[in-house]
């Protein structure tokens, strides 16, 4: 039987709306604050009273001298910035109010090697004018449906720049802003991931990735989404035992009424198979089981396994403007320490973050019983996550190291790092400093058939 997917999705979405009240959009007068006392993406333009967080002055929108275009490893736009002070296990109590529980646990677990070099805060996030216009439109039209299961009335920008409703609704809105955040239109990248063992040993898994952010297709609108936020392709290049394999994901806007579509290509069998388990806490083999499917991109996927609560804003030290760790030619061996990445290559700044807590629902199964997310108020990137085991003990600490990709412009992570405090191992995703290029952004709009299972097989067997 043939059917129109858009019509079917619309009918299912209507049912989900009927089943749960929609989270209302804000008024026009509230939306008019965007670009005035609020940034175009919803954070206060004003800094804090002490001046340690500055006013937002428009962000970083122009590349520094010497930068030749997308794909070139980024030149540090702040080369003269010096470390203001360094937080260590010895003085962490002095800064305790501005540290996440996960960062405190890193000091306690690795007291002689882990440290946080703190720099001047630079609110570098910026977005293109057309995205800013969409954000303002979304503010008065976006709604949450199905108890956080999906959104409607939004396209091409953060759906909820101004949070509203109760603490549960605000938590959903923060997470959906993260899920749909601005990261360009079409991006390709060759990079590696590693699982670093207790003795510092590791082996690279290298792949070629392509992402088309359908939600930001300038030639489309909400009616053309077909319930797909983005299309993702990854082809494994090495090591030989994994080479030739591939993954295709079509990330859905409402994963409860239509779970994400995933396929895998097995090079040995030369077959494409559905991959229905690429979600929730399914372990990712290339990470040596240090990363779950929904850990990828710091967090992704459906919200339905957890009860969500917005805990307000905090001023804490987070990784930000991390250019040094992504500079061309930096050896992976210099980045990867025995217990964690080289702290001398990181940059931490004081920023305001939204704090969201997720507690596993009764009767649901997931390896994490509780998760606490720290989401940058400017870029809506989740940059720190504390993850707890079934006994309620802090187990894993996730860190996203962001920088401004000034060719977009916009802030996105350079590396994502996953620490297992109990096993004393960690996993790094996104290494590319030994590659000739970094992420390549393009305004090209690929044909959606390019991201089909049939295309996956044709491209994999070349």
Assign an overall shape. Answer: globular
Give the N-terminus to C-terminus distance in angstroms. Answer: 34 Å
How many strands appear in the DSSP assignment?
18
Contiguous uncertain segments of 5+ residues? 1-21
How much of the sequence lies in strands comes to 25-35%
What's the average pLDDT?
A: 93
Structural class: alpha+beta
Question: What do you see in this structure?
Answer:
The strands form three sheets. Strands 5, 6, 7, 8, 9, 10, 11, 12, 13, 14, 15, 16, 17 and 18 form a 14-stranded antiparallel β-sheet that branches. This protein has helices spanning 5-19, 28-31, 101-109, 129-141, 167-179, 332-335, 453-460, and strands at residues 85-87, 116-118, 143-145, 150-152, 186-196, 205-212, 228-238, 246-252, 261-266, 271-274, 306-319, 348-360, 370-376, 382-388, 394-404, 411-420, 425-431, 440-442. It contains seven helices and 18 strands. The model is unreliable at 1-21 (pLDDT under 50). The chain is 14% helix and 28% strand. The chain is α+β, with helices and mostly antiparallel strands. Strand 14 and strand 15 (394-404) form a beta hairpin.
List keywords for this structure.
462 residues, alpha+beta, 14-stranded antiparallel sheet, two-stranded antiparallel sheet, 28% strand, disordered N terminus
Task: Give me a quick take on this structure.
This protein has 462 residues and is α+β, with helices and mostly antiparallel strands. It has helices at residues 5-19, 28-31, 101-109, 129-141, 167-179, 332-335, 453-460, and strands spanning 85-87, 116-118, 143-145, 150-152, 186-196, 205-212, 228-238, 246-252, 261-266, 271-274, 306-319, 348-360, 370-376, 382-388, 394-404, 411-420, 425-431, 440-442.
């Amino acid at each position: 039987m043939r059917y129109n997917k858009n019509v079917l999705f619309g009918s299912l979405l209507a049912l989900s709306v009927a089943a749960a009240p929609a989270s209302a959009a804000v008024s026009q007068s509230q939306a008019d604050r965007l670009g005035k006392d609020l940034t175009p993406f919803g954070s206060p333009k004003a800094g804090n009273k002490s001046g340690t967080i500055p006013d937002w002055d428009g962000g970083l929108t122009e590349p520094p001298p010497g930068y030749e275009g997308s794909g070139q490893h980024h030149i540090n736009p702040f080369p003269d910035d010096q470390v203001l002070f360094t937080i260590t296990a010895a003085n962490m109590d002095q800064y305790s109010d501005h540290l996440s529980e996960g960062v405190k646990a890193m000091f306690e677990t690795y007291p002689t090697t882990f440290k946080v070099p703190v720099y001047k805060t630079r609110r570098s996030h910026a977005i293109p004018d057309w995205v800013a216009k969409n954000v303002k439109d979304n503010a008065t039209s976006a709604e949450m449906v199905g108890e956080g299961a999906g959104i409607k009335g939004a396209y091409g920008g953060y759906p909820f720049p101004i949070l509203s409703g109760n603490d549960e609704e605000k938590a959903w809105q923060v997470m959906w802003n993260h899920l749909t955040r601005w990261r360009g239109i079409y991006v390709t990248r060759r990079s590696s991931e590693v699982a670093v063992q207790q003795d510092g040993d590791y082996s690279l898994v290298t792949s070629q990735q392509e992402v088309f952010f359908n939600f930001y297709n300038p030639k489309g609108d909400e009616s053309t989404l077909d319930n797909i936020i983005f299309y993702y392709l990854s082809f494994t290049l090495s090591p030989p035992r994994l080479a030739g394999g591939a993954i295709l994901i079509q990330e859905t806007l409402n994963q409860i009424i239509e779970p994400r579509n995933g396929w895998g290509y097995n090079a040995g069998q030369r077959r494409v198979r559905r991959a229905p388990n690429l979600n929730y806490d399914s372990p990712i083999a290339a990470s040596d089981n240090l990363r779950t499917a929904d850990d990828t991109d710091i967090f992704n996927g459906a919200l339905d396994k957890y009860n969500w609560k917005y805990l307000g804003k905090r001023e804490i030290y987070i990784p930000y403007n991390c250019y040094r760790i992504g500079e061309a030619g930096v050896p992976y061996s210099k980045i990867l320490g025995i217990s964690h990445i080289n702290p001398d290559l990181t940059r931490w700044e004081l920023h305001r973050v939204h704090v969201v807590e997720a507690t596993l629902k009764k009767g649901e199964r997931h390896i994490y019983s509780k998760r606490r997310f720290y989401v940058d108020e400017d870029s809506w990137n989740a940059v720190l996550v504390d993850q707890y085991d079934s006994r309620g003990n802090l187990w894993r600490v996730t860190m996203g190291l962001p920088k401004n990709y000034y060719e977009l412009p916009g802030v996105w992570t350079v590396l994502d790092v996953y620490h297992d405090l109990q096993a004393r191992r960690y996993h790094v995703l996104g290494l590319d400093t030994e590659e000739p290029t970094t992420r390549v952004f393009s305004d090209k709009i690929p044909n959606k058939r390019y991201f089909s299972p049939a295309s996956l097989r044709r491209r994999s067997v070349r």
